[in-house]
Amino acid sequence: MPILSVEALDARHGLLQAVRGVSFSVAEGETFALVGANGAGKTTLLRAIAGAHRASAGYVRFDGTDITALPAHTRVPLGIALVPEGRKLFAGMTTEDNLRVAERRDRPGPWTVERVLEVFPQLVPKLKARAGDLSGGQQQATAIGRALMTNPRLLLLDEVSLGLSPVAVEQLYTSLRALMRGGTTVVLVEQDLNRALAVADRVVCMLEGRVVLERAAKETSREEVLAAYFGLGAA
Amino acid sequence: MSGPDLIVQRWTTRSAWFVAAMGALVVLLALGPTVFSAGLTDRLTTLFIYVILGAMWNALAGYGGLVSVGQQAFFGLGAYAAIRLSHAEVPVYPAIVLAGLAVGVLSLAVGEVMLRLRGGEFAVGMWVVAELAHLLVNLDPLVQGETGTSLIALNAVGAVARRGYNYWLALATMAALLGVLFALLRGRVGTAIQSIRDDEQAAGSLGVRVLPTKRIVFVLAATGCAMAGALWLSTAITFQPKAYFSVQWTAYMIFMTLVGGIGTFEGPVLGAVLFFLVETFFGARGVWYLVGLGAAALAFSLFLPRGMFGALDQRFSLRLLPLGYRVMLPGLLLRRGESGRG
Amino acid sequence: MILLNQLLQGVFLGGYYALIACSLSFMFGVMRIVNLAHGSIVVLAAFLLFVLADRFEISPWLALVAVVPVMAGLGLLLQRFVLDRSLRGGLLVPLLATFGLAIVLDNALFESFGADTRSLSPYIGDLSYNSWSITEDITVGQLDVLILAVAILLLGGLQVLLSRTRIGRAIRATAEDPGTVGLIGIDARAVYGMATAIAMGMAAIAGAFLAMRATFDPYSGGAQLIFAFEAVVIGGFGSLWGTLAGGIVLGVAQNIGAAIDPSGFFIAGHVTFLTVLVGRVAAGGDLFRFFIRRRRA
Fold it and tell me: Are C200 and C69 in contact (CB under 8 A)?
């Protein structure tokens, strides 16, 4: 049974339909990349899976249970965590408080502040600093760490490399690869196609709210994905 | 506007008729004191003052996005200024009009500070201004603290003539203030006001001059409330500061605006009529009636935020006054403007 | 010496203002709502305590143990049925709704209790008049000292709650970004409910001391709201301790005003408030600054 399945999902922003009839499923332990141009509906789709955006039709199932109607805060205890676009840290709070605030009593698991610091050692000297004063890479690490503190089974990452220096991106992905190897299921939105293909087991490309390509990462090429990305030819 | 099939309307036939009818109604109402009984004339004078209060509070909150719980400051100061001017030998009716204008000028200074505040800061800040105004007026030996005084000069005008003058002055003031508000809302200021109400920051970044626009609304509302206070004094004659500087006046204004329809031109007028009827029939119940007013304001703000007029408008597309624009495509009606809050 | 006494009494009065101000400032900090019914809620608590003392002969101290949770419970209801809905209606609706609520509360209290002024001072024994003499001219009331101590304890407790506890962290996070806390499993509405409950519990304590140190009537709420608001603004809507400082400045100003002229008490308070406002406007500063962020900065 897949850990996540999305069935004929629609999501709107007012009159604009951002996600149109999207279906796919993700197996436990898999790393799943969503690619597509800006405005293709990737962020809205991730938010709909996390419960931060209401679906207007279709279903989201987690571990076989229909969670479409659940608000975000009740999906977290089930094991879903989203690292939102733009990080959305609590800027006035310290790094440590940003991590601790996500601690959950109702979902025990392996993640503690100490463990997050093992994965993201760059945060160690910044624990008592205001999250708003951190560098972009440190902020992103904090945002991922905050999501991990909820002990997710499914981690949704939205453009985690956006706005970071190449060094910071490299550092981040080194940490993420360790996570993925550790068995956490990851759905990530990534602008960098090469990176998406390198890190993911499977790739889905979206165009104007629809899925136009779904492939195992090993079985596709950058050219094929790019064609789907721009809506060229038959994908 | 582009596209051959697009029709932009400002004056619909209905709204043109309605404005004409309103003008005719004012002319007809002007005949009032010669036709109506003394009691009815007095009651209608009161109604006109309520319409002024409702419309002015709405101008401030519904159009300027400024919730004030201190408009009684201007109501009380208007009455006080009339007393002072009359005491300085200004003929009594000119004194009433001048009082409103004088307080309007004073409000410019008040606005300089208060308009920098937002939301709740402005709301309570205005209440402090009202309290301070009340205390300072009490210090005037002429007023003698809470004992108060009277607009003695009115006694020189006969009771019958006074009733007529009060009525006409209230009617004229109401018509003039509504006319000014209408003209403002139709002009450049109106567009600016609505953009500020919808999103102050966005309006500012688009080049709307936020502060000057708010200032105009603030001064208009202050002048209107001061005129209402001076008119109230002309009907009541006695001036007890406590009665004029009471926050209850603002409660009435909020009730009228919320129940009638905040952010609509017609709403507060409807609200004032409703308030007038409620007061006529339930005013004698004393405090329960006030509980009812508060509960109605609470309920409308939560459940019917656009008030009675908003609800009616949505249902029947009333559009009595040509404030917004009506854009029509064959088979599609898009409306922009004054009553579209969402 | 007389002036010194006035100053000292002003400081103690400031303790009371800080007490009524802390829930107002707390609610604004967390939910960005200026609760216009705050004063009326304080007075409601005072009446509850009065009824328990007057009709059921329950000591106000004991009664407070019951009234604080009752008011906190009412806070949950207030959040659930009024504030939550009003927050979704835009910036103005919370103001309009809480003002409507204030009118309902004030007049319902009047209907139930009439216009008589009441006080709890007859029910707290000699605490209401006992005092310590510092010098010949300077005495401090024991109740005044107690009120200032309670204010400091409450503010300190609030600070510890916010900075050290799990719920405190959730409150701070929700205050910063209610749209994001859902993603880490926090229900913003539940946090708001909790915050309102805490604020109303503190308002109950403020109500108790309002009733013990002075008289009150059904329409006392407006003045309490204004004093609380003035204390918070003078303190800079900044740290919790700024609220205490603001309360003390207000209390001292009022006492100095009263020394000049009998009617100077309130005038001096309002003038001080407006002077601070004018000063801030002239300095171009943002008046309301979110206290939690400031404190952390």
Answer: no
**Starting at the edge strand that comes first in sequence, how are the strands of the sheet with A154-158 ordered?**
A80-83, A154-158, A185-189, A31-36, A202-207, A210-216
Range of the domain at C119: 2-296
Residues C200, C78: contact at Cβ < 8 Å? yes
Model pLDDT, residue C295: 39
Is the CB of residue C166 less than 8 Å away from at least one CB of chain A?
yes
Tokens of B24: 């005719």
- Are C21 and C246 a contacting pair, CB within 8 Å? yes
pLDDT tens figures, B51-106: 999 999 999 998 888 999 999 999 999 999 999 998 888 898 999 999 999 999 99
CATH code at C205? 1.10.3470
What single DSSP character describes residue C125?
G
pLDDT of C73 higher than 90: yes
Q: Which of C173, C185, C187 sits opposite A90 (nearest CB)?
A: C173
Q: Which residues of B touch C236 (CB under 8 A)?
A: none
- Domains, chain B, ordered by start: 7-336 (1.10.3470)
Which neighbouring-strand residues pair with A19?
A: A11
Over the stretch B295-330, which tens digit does the pLDDT of each residue have? Answer: 988 988 888 888 888 778 776 665 566 565 555 554
- At residue A235, does pLDDT exceed 60? no
Task: Identify which of B58, B241, B60 has the alpha carbon closest to the alpha carbon of residue B133.
Answer: B241
Q: Does C264 touch chain B (CB under 8 A)?
A: no
Residue B335 per-residue DSSP state: E
Residues of C in contact with B254 (CB under 8 A): 96, 99-100
pLDDT confidence of A191, banded at 50, 70, 90? confident
Output the DSSP codes for B173-198.
HHHHHHHHHHHHHHSHHHHHHHHHHH
Over the Cα atoms of chain C, what is R_g? 19
Neighbours of A190 (CB within 10 A): 24
- pLDDT tens string B31-55: 777 778 888 888 899 999 999 999 9
Complete domains list, chain A, with CATH = 4-229 (3.40.50.300)
- Strands, E assignment, chain B: 7-9, 149-150, 238-239, 325-329, 332-336
Contacts of A132 (CB under 8 A, 6+ apart): A89, A91, A92
Residue A91 near residue A142, CB atoms below 8 Å: no
Contact C113, C47 (CB under 8 A): yes
CB C53 within 8 A of CB C123: yes
Question: Cβ of C287 under 8 Å from any chain B Cβ?
Answer: yes
pLDDT over 60 (residue C87): yes
Task: Tell the residue number behind the tokens 């922009």, with chain if given.
Answer: B336
Q: How many CA atoms lie within 13 A of A66 on its CB side?
A: 8
Least confident window among A47-56, A70-79, B177-186, C248-257: B177-186
Interface test with C, best of B60, B110, B127, B287 (most C CBs within 10 A): B287
**C214 CB within 8 Å of a chain B CB:** no
- Asked if the model's pLDDT at residue B200 lies above 80, the reply is no
Q: Quick one: pLDDT at residue B335?
A: 46
All residues of chain A having their beta carbon less than 8 Å from the beta carbon of residue C177 are: 88, 90
Across the beta sheet with A16-26, what order do the strands follow? A16-26, A4-13, A55-62, A65-66
> Quick check: C161 contacting A, CB < 8 Å?
no
pLDDT of B8 reads 60
| pLDDT tops 70 at residue B9 | no
β-pairing, B325-329 vs B238-239, is unpaired
The residues, ordered by sequence, that sit 6+ positions from B91 with a Cβ below 8 Å of its Cβ are B153
CA–CA distance, B264 with B321 (Å, rounded to integer)? 10
Q: Is the pTM of this model over 0.90?
A: no
